[in-house]
Design goal:
heterodimer; A: 432 residues; alpha/beta; abc type-2 transporter like fold; 2 domains; 6-stranded mixed sheet; 8 strands; elongated; B: 236 residues; Rossmann fold; globular
């Protein structure tokens, strides 16, 4: 037993190296940072009054009651006398995201035992779940209104008139409309966001896996060459230094491409199976209508753009990995040196899951968009919203960054740095 | 020809202006203790490191200004170097030959010579991962010599090898030097150097302390071998 303990302690000491602990600590800080960012946004959303456009064509006590209930729930109600489309246009210019429309005969319908219908229009700026929070809040208000009216109806003599229980429980019904760009469709915003998330979930997963695998392989290749001193042999041979670096990148890129193809194939199969068995069974027809009306389909050219974005991201990651891999002289340290790449993928991935990036504070927004992988993670949304200019800006940024990194690699391979620079626990050491 | 080479790593001065010359067809050895500056000198001569000051000329080509030409004239065997473990021995020789020669015929001839130098027989078809240290070293030496360089730079060529393998490697080097190639090697094994070298330079703390043939140095310091010479020189 004593020997077993001694061995176990030795193994733990071997495993718990500074190279292993440092990335863990950094990861904890990253999670704290992201959590704080999401939390502060949620707090702001909770404290700030949410703007809601309100069109009341009924002008009754009940419609007035709906308006007051919204105001009571911290909504800033902006009343319009215009028609719906004009109001939507004006609201979108003012960065509004919600419109509640109460049609004529709303209260009259309720009084004669028919459902009063409220139309809710939601203008989605992105497919993050933060976007539907506001809509959910309105739906909760309507539900509250329903309860109040329902209680009044039950108390009143209308009960004796033989009204249906279903009506008495939900005298007010709402219809939800989703606005994406200039296209509008009736349907649940939650359903659309779930659909788009499911459709685009494979992009960040594939990108993350491909980036990590290829980064690891190229950094390991460099570290192994340094460790075995085969790099010295290559550097002293009549081969251009750029060719040595680029051949590693190219080979890793090819391996990454192969991995990506396998993942895309596997993931599409997985997603299609889920869609066919689950989503389509429940919402198939409705979803097809919504997809058609909102044009939530990627064309062949969209897929080409997406592929190019992923390719550029992988190349940027490979270039960073070559630089980071050059800072280590043994394979064991590779995991530690490529941690920054994983963090750079993790930050935008987690943020885009929960937050609409445009709602971040300006400094955080700029910081997140400085990360090249953010542009690729946002690519599917931008394609759905037909924001091609953002796609092109993202591609341009990644291309410029890639060329700058290539220049750095070239400089490193043409200087002593490739052999003499090492990172030891955060310190850069120069020597042999 | 090495002229006034200096090199620092941060505050550490690895070379403090060393100069020496190795002539065509001779075996020239840099001898000195660990950390004396041998490897740094060889790395600069093989164009891997850039000197802070001074220059090196290989067949009149400066390592500073014409490193591409110098690389086509030299081969470098680093101390404790490895090879690509997933390659076979013969695959490795072919791969390295293809880096030196554009013509397939020249590359094939180099590989044939490499096979002869390595003397590994059928084992050349095995993966390098299965080689012993001695076999791997012979393969690497074959790789360095098969391209018939103007200058072969060998850093501690027998480091870590057993007696029999060391003797074999020394024989290969000696035979090759006779064919007109210049060999520049470093070692802290004084007996090996005495056996192999035509001339030696004693280096310590980044400075050349003495240069001459082993006989000249032994006579000058009235010593029976180079070890004794080194002991006296480094104390002075």
């Amino acid at each position: 037993m004593r020997k077993f303990l001694t061995l176990t302690i030795k193994e733990i000491r071997e495993l718990l190296t500074p190279q292993m602990i440092l990335p863990l600590i950094i990861t904890v800080f990253i999670f704290m940072f992201i959590g704080q960012l999401i939390g502060s946004q949620a707090k702001t959303t909770g404290q700030e009054k949410t703007r809601v456009a309100f069109i009341d064509k009924d002008r009754s006590q009940i419609s007035e009651f709906v308006k007051k209930a919204l105001e009571k729930q911290n909504f800033k109600v902006i009343e319009y006398n215009a028609d719906v489309n004009k109001a939507i246009l004006l609201e979108r210019k003012k960065q509004g995201s919600l419109l509640v429309f109460i049609p004529e005969n709303f209260s009259e319908n309720i009084e004669i035992g028919k459902n009063g219908e409220v139309k809710i229009y939601i203008f989605l700026p992105s497919f993050s779940f933060a976007g539907v929070q506001k809509a959910s809040k309105i739906k909760a208000v309507i539900q509250g209104i329903n309860e109040v009216i329902s209680n009044n109806l039950i108390k009143s003599s209308t009960v004796q008139r033989g009204l249906k229980t279903d009506f008495l429980k939900n005298p007010v019904r709402f219809k939800e409309y989703v606005q994406i760009g200039n296209k509008q469709a009736q349907g649940s915003s939650e359903l659309i966001i779930s659909f788009v998330s499911n459709q685009s979930a494979f992009i960040p997963i594939i990108m993350t896996v491909v980036i990590i695998i290829s980064s690891q392989s190229v950094a390991t290749a460099i570290a192994a060459e340094k460790e075995n001193k085969t790099l010295e042999t290559l550097l002293a041979s009549p081969v251009s230094r750029s060719a040595i670096a680029l051949s590693k990148m190219f080979a890793s890129g090819l391996v990454a491409l192969l991995v990506a193809i396998f993942y895309i194939f596997g993931f599409r199969y997985y997603m299609n199976s889920i869609m066919e068995s689950d989503m389509n069974a429940r919402f198939g027809a409705e979803m097809s209508r919504i997809i058609e009306q909102l044009n939530l389909k990627l064309s062949a050219s969209d897929y080409v753009l997406l592929g190019l974005m992923i390719f550029l991201s992988v190349m940027v990651a490979l270039a960073i990995s070559i630089i980071l891999g050059s800072f280590t002289d043994n394979v064991k340290s590779v995991q530690a040196v490529i941690t920054p790449i994983m963090i750079l993928v993790l930050i935008p991935y987690l943020l885009t899951l929960f937050v609409d990036l445009t709602s971040l504070p300006k400094w955080a927004y700029l910081l997140v968009y400085l990360i090249p992988f953010t542009h690729t993670l946002q690519a599917v949304q931008n394609l759905f919203f037909s924001r091609y200019e953002l796609i092109l800006i993202g591609m341009g940024y990644q291309l410029v960054l890639f060329l700058a990194l290539l220049y750095v690699i070239r400089m490193m391979f043409h200087s002593d740095r490739i052999l003499t620079t090492r990172i030891k626990m955060g310190k850069i050491k120069i020597g042999v | 020809m090495v002229e006034n080479l200096t090199k620092s790593y941060g505050s550490l001065k690895a070379l403090k202006g060393i100069s020496f010359e190795a002539f065509r067809g001779e075996v020239f050895a840099l001898i000195g203790p660990n950390g004396a500056g041998k490897t740094t000198s060889l790395r600069i001569i093989s164009t891997i490191l850039t000197p802070d000051d001074g220059d090196v000329y290989v067949a009149n080509n400066s390592v500073r200004y014409k490193p591409e030409i110098v690389r086509s004239l030299i081969t470098y065997l680093p101390e404790d170097a490895g090879a690509y473990k997933n390659m076979t021995g013969i695959g490795y020789l072919k791969f390295m030959a293809s880096l030196y020669f554009d013509s397939k015929k020249d590359a094939r001839e180099a590989v044939e010579l490499g096979v002869e130098i390595a003397g590994l027989g059928d084992r050349l078809s095995s993966k390098i991962a299965t080689y012993s240290k001695g076999m791997a070293r012979k393969l690497l030496l074959a790789r360095a010599l098969m391209v018939r360089p103007v200058l072969a730079i060998l850093d501690e060529p027998t480091s870590g090898l057993d007696v029999m393998n060391s003797i074999e490697v020394r024989k290969i080097i000696k035979n090759f030097a006779r064919s007109g190639m210049t060999v520049l090697l470093s070692s802290h094994n004084m007996l090996e150097v005495e056996y192999l070298s035509d001339r030696v330079a004693i280096i310590d703390k980044g400075e050349i302390l003495e240069t001459g043939t082993p006989k000249e140095l032994k006579d000058k310091y009235n010593a029976s071998n180079l070890e004794e010479v080194f002991e006296v020189v480094s104390k002075n």
